[in-house]
């Protein structure tokens, strides 16, 4: 069902917020749990819709995950009889492609429909296929499905043309049970790749060098150690609260983070003029002065994360002066620009470059979330805007943020959500501010 979020802007965020476990790490680890020979416990798992969907997929394949408490899952994998995941389940999230590697390693065969996910670009899988083929898998594409088979996987040297997160994770998982040694060169260095490697090593895998651009995996016969593993904190959720704090000139302490993972954003926000203090596992964000425009280029980790680009664009749209954003990861990740324009922003998009001419303020409007992070960006824009912003397709936000509006409300924001199709009026007066009269200029 289509959900809406209504935001009344103008209040500085104040207080403390704790981030949940990392969506992208949890998804990869849940796919990797298919390899486990013993019952395992995974902690700090965010109960968000993407996680619920991947749980449905692995359950369909034969795994037995069950929630023990809010963020604690146990997973047992008694036997995997089923080799094919149904399109209806898989289409809901792209991360289901991360089952290719572990299913191949565990069962020698899998058939997965090409997955769905956010509408942010073509997102091919050639690098996944190249790596798995190098390990000895046969891959066929037929009727929108990938059919992968391997009687035996053998370690190999794989050079990735681009450090793809998903391809690195898939190859790493397949290589765990391959015969001999695998080298992944130009591997992705994202913290979520390291988290997956640590989890697999806990199960008994022999993975070395995760977090660098060469990962070495020595294949083992089985991964049969019982494990109790904690997922890392979500750096994108933490980053989203940092930008929200800066956007509202607030004062927010973010707890339960790994500051190092968010360094590229911290540096950018400091360049804008925000004050950020790093503790061991906290970040204190304050914004007392006029902010400056900045230029942003998204890059693979440790570069500026593409998953924070939309939120930062929302903030920059109301900083007078010119900011330039270059999106190097996805070719279709500026869709939020046309929604921000409905709120009064002046953003020109030319291919992979967005030129943001900051305006003095944004105005509330009816907007539509084009994808998960863009949805969060629109909430941030709503928090900065004068009047009320109504964001439709807000269910996309719940793919990635646990208790988003609850956590924001805890910081003093006026945010409410519902499944309504009728307009909802948040606290205070019924506003007609720009509800239907904003000139629309779609890209
Ligand atoms: C992961 C994250 C996503 C994040 C992205 C980049 C998960 C579940 N999702 O996505 O939130 O935005 O990393 O940090 O972890 N590509 C190819 N061929 C391939 C694979 C990728 O051309 O075989 C391209 C993609 O189209 C994209 C770029 O490489 O343009 C990055 O993709 P990749 O690093 O693989 O991202 P995902 O693992 O899909």
Overview of the structural elements:
The protein has 443 residues and is of the alpha+beta class. It folds into two domains: 4-20 and 233-428, Enolpyruvate transferase domain (UDP-n-acetylglucosamine1-carboxyvinyl-transferase, Chain); 23-219, UDP-n-acetylglucosamine1-carboxyvinyl-transferase, Chain (Alpha-beta prism), CATH 3.65.10. Helix content is 29%, strand content 24%. The chain has 13 helices and 23 strands. The strands form six sheets. The protein has a four-stranded mixed beta sheet with strand order 21-22-1-23. Strands 2-14-16-15 form a four-stranded mixed beta sheet. A four-stranded mixed beta sheet has the order 4-5-3-13, covered by helices on one side. Helix 10 (309-316) links the parallel strand 17 and strand 18. The radius of gyration is 22 Å and the shape is elongated. The protein binds uridine-diphosphate-N-acetylglucosamine. Uridine-diphosphate-N-acetylglucosamine is lined by residues 24, 27, 94-95, 121-128, 162, 164-167, 188, 192, 306-307, 329-330. Residues 24, 27, 94-95, 121-128, 162, 164-167, 188, 192, 306-307, 329-330 line the site of uridine-diphosphate-N-acetylglucosamine.
Please supply descriptive tags for the structure shown above.
binds uridine-diphosphate-N-acetylglucosamine; disordered C terminus; 23 strands; 29% helix; four-stranded mixed sheet; 2 domains; UDP-n-acetylglucosamine1-carboxyvinyl-transferase, Chain; 13 helices; single chain; 443 residues; 24% strand; elongated; alpha+beta
């Amino acid at each position: 069902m289509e959900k809406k979020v209504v935001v009344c802007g103008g209040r500085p965020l104040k207080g403390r917020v704790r981030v949940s476990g990392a969506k992208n790490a949890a998804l990869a680890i849940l796919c990797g749990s298919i390899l486990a020979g013993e019952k395992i416990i995974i902690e700090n798992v965010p109960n968000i819709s993407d996680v619920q969907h991947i749980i449905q997929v692995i359950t369909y394949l034969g795994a037995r995950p069950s929630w023990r408490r809010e963020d604690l899952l146990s997973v047992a994998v008694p036997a995997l009889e089923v080799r094919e995941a149904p399109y209806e389940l898989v289409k809901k999230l792209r991360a289901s492609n991360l089952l290719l590697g572990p299913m191949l390693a565990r069962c020698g065969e899998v058939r997965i429909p090409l997955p769905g996910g956010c509408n942010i670009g073509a997102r091919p899988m050639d690098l996944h296929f190249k790596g798995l083929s190098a390990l000895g898998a046969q891959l066929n594409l037929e009727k929108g499905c990938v059919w992968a088979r391997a009687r035996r996987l053998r370690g190999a040297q794989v050079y990735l043309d681009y450090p793809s997160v998903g391809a690195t994770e898939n190859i790493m998982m397949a290589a765990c049970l391959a015969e001999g040694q695998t080298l992944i060169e130009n591997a992705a260095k994202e913290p979520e790749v390291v988290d997956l490697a640590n989890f697999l090593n806990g199960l008994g895998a022999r993975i070395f060098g995760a977090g660098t651009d060469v990962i070495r995996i020595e294949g083992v016969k089985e991964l049969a150690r019982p494990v109790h593993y904690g997922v890392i904190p979500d750096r994108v959720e933490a980053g989203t609260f940092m930008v929200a704090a800066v956007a509202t000139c607030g004062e927010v302490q973010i707890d339960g983070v790994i500051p190092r993972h968010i360094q590229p954003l911290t540096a950018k926000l400091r360049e804008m003029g925000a004050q950020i203090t790093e503790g061991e596992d906290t970040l204190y964000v304050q914004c007392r002065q006029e902010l400056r425009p900045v230029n942003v280029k998204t890059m693979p980790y440790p570069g500026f994360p593409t998953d924070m680009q939309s939120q930062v664009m929302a903030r920059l749209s109301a900083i007078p002066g010119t900011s330039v954003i270059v999106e190097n990861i996805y070719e279709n990740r500026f869709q939020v620009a046309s929604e921000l324009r409905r709120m009064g922003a002046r953003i020109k998009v030319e291919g992979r470059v967005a030129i943001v001419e900051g305006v003095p303020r944004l105005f509330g409007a009816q907007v539509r979330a084009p994808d998960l992070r863009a949805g969060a960006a629109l909430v941030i824009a709503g928090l900065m805007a004068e009047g009320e912003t109504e964001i439709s397709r807000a269910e996309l936000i719940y793919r990635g943020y646990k208790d988003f509006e609850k956590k924001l409300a805890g910081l003093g924001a006026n945010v409410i959500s519902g499944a309504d199709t009728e307009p909802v009026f948040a606290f205070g007066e019924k506003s007609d501010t720009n509800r239907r009269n904003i000139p629309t200029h779609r890209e």
